[in-house]
Amino acid sequence: MKVAVAGCCHGELDKLYETLELLQRRHNVRIDLLLCCGDFQAVRNEADLRCMAVSAKYRHMQTFYRYYSGEKKAPVLTIFIGGNHEASNHLQELPYGGWVAPNIYYLGYAGVVKYRGVRIGGISGIFKSHDYKKGHFECPPYNQQTVRSAYHVRNIEVFKLKQLKHPMDIFMSHDWPRSIYHYGNKKQLLKMKSFFRQEVENNTLGSPAASELLQHFQPTYWFSAHLHVKFAALMQHQTNIEGQLPKATKFLALDKCLPHRDFLQVIDIDHDPNASDSLEYDIEWLAVLKATNNLINVTSNAWNMPENNGLHAKWDYSATEGALKEILEELSHNLKIPCNFSVTAACYDPNKPQKNMEPVHIISPQTTEFCAQFGLTDINDRIQQVKEERSVRGEYEEEEEMDSTESAEEPSEYYTDNSGLSFSINPDEIMLDEEGGDEDQSTCSVDPSPDHPPDFSASFSDTRIMPDSMMVSSDDAMDSTNEDVEKSGVSEQTEEKSLNERALKRIGKNENGNSAMKKIKRRNQAIYAAEDEDKV
Fold first, then answer.
1. What is the structure's pLDDT at 184?
2. Which of 176, 182, 187, 463 matches a 20 to 30 Å C-alpha distance to 205?
3. Which ranges of 193-332 does DSSP label H, i.e. alpha helix?
4. From the centroid of its chain, how far is CA 372?
5. What are 2's strand-pairing partners?
6. Which residues is 105 bridged to in the sheet?
7. Which burial class, exposed, middle or buried, applies to 112 when counting CB atoms under 10 A from its CB (0-12, 13-18, 19+)?
8. Which one, of 139, 144, 226, 138, lies nearest residue 178 by Cα?
9. pLDDT above 90: residue 345
């Protein structure tokens, strides 16, 4: 079957589906499935916009609300994961996944489904060491810290995924697995995105959690987005089993949805012609969810996952044959995911804008039904219970204050070298480009390394089908100036002004009354001059 893979969507659903329709007509093909690798931006109304971790000038309604309201319907089944620019309050309603609109399915914090016999998994968000061991404690209305921590990957999701033993065909993550850049054309990548150089050389670019999952699953395909550049790689895995051939993973990262950018790729995926053409549950994943239900943590306290170190009575939560049989019996052998989408919030009306709409914590009927069917804890219901209990005891406000001051100090089991990121663009939190930067055509296609087999190059280059308006011309293939990316860093620094001011207090002032950090930052004088203009 033909699967279209998209990078960062940024709410441009109309443009994305129009592009798919155009290429289907032009090339006489039929797209069976669309996969989106995060920054989907399922924004329903003005309250959802307030829950996106972007500066005010990037809070645009875009077009998702038309699919949510029923004005339009996705022309192709769409499966997506969350990124770091999302309506977090909306996606939080579906921690186990669900329909955000008819024919548009969210995989949840982490999830695995099947379509036409192809097993598809994914993990939402990006990795941040200081939040990795915490529970999913955030809920709207968010503060300056929780609006960001809400989309940070947690160790419980990685732990659940690592309990899976059956092969994975496709896996998606928003940020790249750490070290994957060593398996593709690294020279060309750094030519286009030179500010990645230090992180690449230090091997700190990307997610160590995703890298761990890549080693565990060794899937046939791994798709990512986040860094706004197309990059292909082939990772040959090692095997310790005698007589077993080593597996290889074809990795592909894609750009964001803009003209002349490599944001879309069509790939032929082997499938089971006898399998259902409906989206289906994965029984092994359901069994793992049931087995790990008692590990759920909805507090900001650090929580270590069980491991075989003598400290835990149980550390293996993988699915047994009995558990798989039980799931099948519960579902009466009908694995089809019910099309039970329901509207849970008012939809944006361009004729009646409500700029002061406040976000509220919503319990989704889809999640309630899913948890009741499989005996799982409704995370949002549990968060509300904990919140009410602490409010009665007068503890809630105290914890919220603690979260805002101590989040950055939370230890992690991963070593993350941030020394090179203090005064530079942080690719883990890469921001939306400036609107005026769309004319920059520096993100040309990245071909696989010459050392890779030619058939791999064909799978990710020759099968790419895009309309002329979306293809990169020879005029576009010039050295990157990084102007739009450097500008993007300004927006994030503006968004995190309160955090920066708190950090400056600890540094102290020099003899002229100016902080030492400010003096160092001025090495990019032009950028910070632009920031001052934004504040006016």
1. 97
2. 463
3. 197-202, 208-217, 283-291, 321-330
4. 27
5. 268
6. 79, 99
7. buried
8. 226
9. yes
